[in-house]
């Protein structure tokens, strides 16, 4: 970006430059009185955050709220105001300020974006489950996310591959906007949305404008992202379909897809004395029902009674055939078929952790 263009953009950001709103009155137009959030006793979290939690489309079109005050890390005092997801399966970090300069929100937001940059689909589901529970909403978090994205099943390679940062504030200081433009020039997808309150009688009006990037530039960025997604989708269609031969002691299993390779190794670890959740501790990888069942009984029971760590995923994503179900200490376990690109690393971990020295595998020639 050249110096002249930067200066022009900074003029657009200039907090003293606000296009007034007029009230039409016959043949005249009366300017509507400007006000501030402070003057109207509108609080940041109690009012603004609550409003956008219920109507996120005001500042982030085509998005859903995953979590509020999200802080799934050790330093729990640092929390994302609103953690969202857009229809491109991007994680959206939303930071809100009612101040007249935006404070240091861009620094906070970049830090938060880094913290959630590796969020998995399963972690997003857990965050949304907590959000629904805290708002007394009884619904299936995974189903809601899949329906929003228009997916039939999770797509780990597509989920969360990009991060969008949205800063929403009454105004933005020149220092902040200079930093935002620098981030934008270095391929950080970041937006500034100005929230300008006005007073009309006893009513407070809110003028919402995206001031960076300008809408025309934002449309261009969307087209670039769509092109990038198409390229990634084309690459995913050429995903690794390698099959494997697995040896367990004197038994040989041939021509196994990766998910079956993982299944047999996990099952062997359990048969040798390990607890299912010790072999693979991620609760959402399991569908668990108290009692011991055949396939048909298990599927019926899973609809009516779920263990506290059971997945809410559809049963077709699990190994649920009669000879695939795992019975352990009065419960029936079904392991997921959805492993993504971490299958082989998990298989290697299990073999090493439980010292399954007579287990080996190799790609089929």
Give the overall average pLDDT.
83
- For the secondary structure, the number of strands is 15
Secondary-structure class: alpha+beta
Low-confidence stretches: 1-13, 306-313
Helix content: 25-40%
Q: Whole-Å distance between the termini?
A: 52 Å
Strand content of the residues, in percent?
15-25%
Shape estimate: elongated
Radius of gyration: 26 Å
The structural domain count equals: 2
- Biggest sheet features: 7 strands, mixed
- Give the helix tally: 11
Order of helices and strands: HEEEHEEEHHHEHEEHEEHHEHEEHE
Q: What can you tell me about this protein's structure?
A:
The protein is α+β, with helices and mostly antiparallel strands. The chain has two domains: 234 residues, no CATH class; 120 residues, no CATH class. Helices cover 36% and strands 24% of the residues. The protein contains eleven helices and 15 strands. Strands 3, 4, 5, 6, 7, 8 and 9 form a seven-stranded mixed β-sheet that branches. Strands 11-10-15 form a three-stranded antiparallel β-sheet, with helices on one face. It has a three-stranded antiparallel β-sheet with strand order 12-14-13, with helices on one face. Helix 8 packs parallel to helix 11. The longest helix has 23 residues.
């Amino acid at each position: 970006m050249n110096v002249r263009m930067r200066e022009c953009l900074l003029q657009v950001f200039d907090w003293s430059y606000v296009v007034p709103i007029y009230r039409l009155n016959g043949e005249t137009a009366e300017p509507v009185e400007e006000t501030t959030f402070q003057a109207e006793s509108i609080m940041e979290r109690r009012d603004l955050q609550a409003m956008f939690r219920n109507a996120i489309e005001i500042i982030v079109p085509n998005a859903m709220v995953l979590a509020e005050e999200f802080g799934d890390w050790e330093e729990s005092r640092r929390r994302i105001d609103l953690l969202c997801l857009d229809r491109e399966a991007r994680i959206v970090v939303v930071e809100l300020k009612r101040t007249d300069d935006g404070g240091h929100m861009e620094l906070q937001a970049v830090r938060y974006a880094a913290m959630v940059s590796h969020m998995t689909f399963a972690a997003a589901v857990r965050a949304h489950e907590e959000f629904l529970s805290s708002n007394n909403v009884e619904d299936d978090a995974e189903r809601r996310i899949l329906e929003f994205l228009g997916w039939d099943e999770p797509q780990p390679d597509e989920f969360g591959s990009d991060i969008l940062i949205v800063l929403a504030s009454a105004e933005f200081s020149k220092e902040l906007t200079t930093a935002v433009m620098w981030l934008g020039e270095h391929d950080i997808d970041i937006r500034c949305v100005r929230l300008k309150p006005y007073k009309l009688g006893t009513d407070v009006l809110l003028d919402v404008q995206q001031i960076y990037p300008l809408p025309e530039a934002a449309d261009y960025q969307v087209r670039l992202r769509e092109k990038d997604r198409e390229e990634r989708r084309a690459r995913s269609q050429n995903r690794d379909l390698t099959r494997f031969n697995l040896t367990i002691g004197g038994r040989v299993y041939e021509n196994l897809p990766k998910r079956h390779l993982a299944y047999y190794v996990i099952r062997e670890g359990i048969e040798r004395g390990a607890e299912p959740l010790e072999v693979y501790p991620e609760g959402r990888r399991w569908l668990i029902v108290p009692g011991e069942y055949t396939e048909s009984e298990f599927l019926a029971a899973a609809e009516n009674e779920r263990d506290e760590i059971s997945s809410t995923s559809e049963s077709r994503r699990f190994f649920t055939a009669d000879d695939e179900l795992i019975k352990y200490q009065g419960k029936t376990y079904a392991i997921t078929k959805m492993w993504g690109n971490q299958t082989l690393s998990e298989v290697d971990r299990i073999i090493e952790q439980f010292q399954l020295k007579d287990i080996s595998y190799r790609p089929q020639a």
